[in-house]
Amino acid sequence: MSFPLPEVTPLSKPYWDGLQNGRLRFQRCSACGHAWLPARAECPECWKAQWQWTDASGRGRVVSWVVYHHAYHPEFKDRVPYNVTLVELDEGPRLITNVVKLGNRRLGIELPVRLCIENEHGIALARFELD
Length: 131
Ligand SMILES: [Zn+2]
Known about the structure:
Strand content: 35-45%
Structural class: mainly beta
Number of strands: 8
Distance between the termini: 35 Å
Low-confidence stretches: none
Mean pLDDT: 96
Largest sheet: 5 strands, antiparallel
Bound molecules: zinc ion
Oligomer: single chain
Strand order of the largest sheet: 6-5-4-7-8
């Protein structure tokens, strides 16, 4: 079994290209100003399809997390225990990610984090570290 890679679509390609170039990008609605991740065709607030890609500051905070002690995919067996964390960016969008370079026991709600792009299997991934 090979490493599970994200499915890059024409809609999400700017997100993945941004990470490859060292930037975390999200969509912001041109009509109502709402900002979101992951990529979607319409604003989840007002349903208008008028938006643009915007660079995030890379700063955010931990909203919630879980620690996996069992690998549900063989490619992850050497990583356990690892965290899967919900981070809210300063600009509002939330993404599911990992907080790295910090022990899982040190994770906490409202913990300030900053973007830490890691390349893995040829793809740049948005992870976070303690800010
Ligand atoms: Zn909107």
